[in-house]
Amino acid sequence: MKISARNILEGTVSDIRKGQIMAVIKLILPSGTAISSIITNESAERLGLKSGVKAYAIIKASSVIMGKEVASINISARNIIKGTVQKVKEGMIMAEIVLDIGGGNTITSTISDDSVKRMELKVGDEAYAIVKATSVMLGVS
Amino acid sequence: MKISARNILEGTVSDIRKGQIMAVIKLILPSGTAISSIITNESAERLGLKSGVKAYAIIKASSVIMGKEVASINISARNIIKGTVQKVKEGMIMAEIVLDIGGGNTITSTISDDSVKRMELKVGDEAYAIVKATSVMLGVS
Amino acid sequence: MKISARNILEGTVSDIRKGQIMAVIKLILPSGTAISSIITNESAERLGLKSGVKAYAIIKASSVIMGKEVASINISARNIIKGTVQKVKEGMIMAEIVLDIGGGNTITSTISDDSVKRMELKVGDEAYAIVKATSVMLGVS
Questions:
Q1: Who among C22, C66, C71 is closest to B22 (CB)?
Q2: With contact defined as beta carbons under 8 Å apart, do C91 and B96 qualify?
Q3: What is C79-133 written as a DSSP string?
Q4: I need a labelling partner for C139 at 20 to 30 A (CA). Which of B106, C16, C46, C65 fits?
């Protein structure tokens, strides 16, 4: 399977909470970072997800917001992942940022070029990848 | 009504399942392809959605991931739609892919240019449009 | 806190409805415009959200669809916000639109350049920013 999503992070399911339609699933990466995903109960069952199962968090770069000096207590997004800016590639309208989040993993984000300039994002900066749990798909192999 | 979303697919509602807040709605395109959407119960009622009603699935190109050799059993996204790459337009940061999904319909996706290169996506390739149900809006006329 | 999301709109929480997993939260901007957000109950509690609390609606530009002649009765998105096009910046694949929504607020959207041409979007046009509630994060300071 090859998919265009820039962020495919392998981890282990550590928690599943199910509602009537939606389920919140937590994945722990080898580095200890937790990633939350909201999918339907039906998909969780179809994939056979349960605690201890290996799974991938799949995140499209356009779903990732970049932050600086972010406190998780202040923002609703379930995923606020600290890292170091590894690459900044600017275009005319859009730009691409690669964040090293440790444990050999990176998170790529496409944001507007104006935001890169406004935030003065540059290689070496401490920054955060902010991702709403509804933007995280899960995959199994 | 004119909207910027590149993908507006007409179909017929075939199934609605409601939770407390959210509802999963299935639409069948004339080609037989099913599209799932997650919207609020309130919106489903406001639009008068029920089995047999004509509706449109509205999907922003940036919400569409492209895949190759994808098995739906392996990924949580409810919408994994097979097609043939009809057009690849590359930019500096972003690229645009048009996928012919049959029945006269296409799905347009904006992905990063790096992904186009990594996946070696080209006209004529068999590929899949992958869309999370939470990224699908519904419209009625 | 600095974040890349182009749209950070300050308002006051006016309504919270909770399900088992997800909650719908309504924010009223000083101009009277309402913004709906769907987040998890857990995040709503973590942020201390309740009626009367000041909060920010945070919306990534790529989550905003642009519309013209849109009737809210016809589309599932909870947020359909009327405004006047203030700026159109075209790129090769993507374009950026700034919509003045009154009360000193703007909403920025990144859409494909093809959509700008197809919709003939230009400065001064009456247009709508369309945002699915699941794409709206909330923040508090």
A1: C22
A2: no
A3: EEEEEEEEEEEE-SSEEEEEEEEETTEEEEEEEEHHHHHHHT--TT-EEEEEE-G
A4: C65
Contact B112, B132 (CB under 8 A): no
User: Nearest Cβ partner of A65 from C3, C92, C134?
Assistant: C3
Six-digit token string for A123: 């290689």
Interface predicted TM-score (ipTM) of this complex, two decimals: 0.91
Tell me the C-alpha distance between C38 and C132, whole Å.
9
CA dist list (Å): A74 to B12, B79, C36: 41, 33, 18
**What global pTM score does this model have?**
0.94
Q: Does C132 touch chain B (CB under 8 A)?
A: yes
Helix, coil or strand: residue B75:
strand
**Residue B46 belongs to what H/E stretch?**
helix B41-46
At residue C64, the 3 state secondary structure works out as coil
- pLDDT tens digits, residue range C75-131? 999 999 999 999 999 999 999 999 999 999 999 999 999 999 999 999 999 999 999
